[in-house]
């Protein structure tokens, strides 16, 4: 499986932002907040960020930290429900 990373591109023109699919897979486009979430190959992420920043309708490009967030949780804490019963 190919390792992918997410990028958030803040744009000024959503009609022109439809062309971002040539850089990666467009996952979501927000019409209200004017941003595009796209997934690119992790090995080419830095190069893609530089290319996106050169586009005239892209204001800012941010990297998504979703891969770094811990998604597996452990329940090592004691159960506190007995303290809250009547």
List the keywords.
86 residues; alpha+beta; Alpha-Beta Plaits; four-stranded antiparallel beta sheet; 4 strands
Could you characterize what this model shows?
With 86 residues, the chain is of the alpha+beta class. It has a single domain, classed as Alpha-Beta Plaits. Helices cover 15% and strands 31% of the residues. It is built from 2 helices and 4 strands. The protein has helices at 14-17, 45-53; strands spanning 4-11, 25-30, 35-41, 58-63. Strands 2-3-1-4 form a 4-stranded antiparallel β-sheet, with helices on one face. Strand 2 and strand 3 form a beta hairpin. The longest helix is centred in the middle third of the chain and has 9 residues, at 45-53. The N and C termini lie far apart (52 Å).
């Amino acid at each position: 499986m190919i390792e992918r990373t997410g990028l958030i591109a803040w744009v000024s023109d959503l009609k022109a932002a439809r062309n971002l699919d040539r850089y990666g897979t467009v996952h979501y486009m927000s019409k209200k907040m004017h941003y595009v979430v796209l997934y690119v190959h992790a090995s080419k992420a830095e190069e893609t960020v530089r290319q996106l920043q050169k586009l005239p309708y892209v204001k800012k490009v941010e990297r998504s930290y979703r891969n770094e967030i811990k998604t597996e949780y452990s329940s090592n804490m004691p159960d506190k429900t007995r303290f809250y019963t009547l």
